[in-house]
Amino acid sequence: MLTGKFFTIVSQQQPDAQSVHTVIAWNAAHPIFEGHFPDQPVVPGVCMMQTIQELLSAAVGKDLLVEKASNMKFLNMIDPRQAPQVTVEITWTPDEAAYKTTAVIKHEATVFLKFQGRFK
């Protein structure tokens, strides 16, 4: 799990029963950044997806995994020194035994990741 080590939750709002907006702070001193990349830290894409997975799992109260990523766009790199806090907006719809999910990771007007898919 990345929560509490790679990132911490600063604040969280649940605008309705099927969405959550979370402000997180990256741990720029985390060892991941020593290899990704020295002197130019970048949040790995897999860590962005794991962050979404962990926040969604906590919101619905179930351990979930990505079942399908129908649309995933990495639009900008996240340097934890330049964007030490980001907002993760997640919306879901229960669909059979899964959750149809839309997520965005952003800081102000800069969007880093857009995701559409299913978690099960």
Could you characterize the architecture of this molecule?
The chain has one domain: Hotdog Thioesterase (Thiol Ester Dehydrase, Chain A). It has about 120 residues and is an alpha+beta fold. The chain contains two helices and six strands; from the N terminus they run ββααββββ. The mean pLDDT is about 95. The protein has a six-stranded antiparallel sheet, covered by helices on one side. It is globular and about 45 Å long.
According to DSSP, the number of beta strands is 6
CATH T-level topology = Thiol Ester Dehydrase, Chain A
**Proper CATH architecture:** Roll
Main β-sheet description:
6 strands, antiparallel
Count of helical regions: 2
User: Strand sequence of the main sheet, in spatial order?
Assistant: 1-2-4-5-6-3
Low-confidence stretches: none
Structural class: alpha+beta
CATH class: Alpha Beta
Tell me the span between the first and last alpha carbons: 17 Å
Whole-number tally of structural domains: 1
SSE topology string? EEHHEEEE
Q: Specify the overall morphology.
A: globular
The CATH homologous superfamily corresponds to: Hotdog Thioesterase
Protein name: 3-hydroxyacyl-ACP dehydratase
Domain ApeI dehydratase-like: 13-101
InterPro entries: ApeI-like, HotDog_dom_sf
GO molecular function: lyase activity
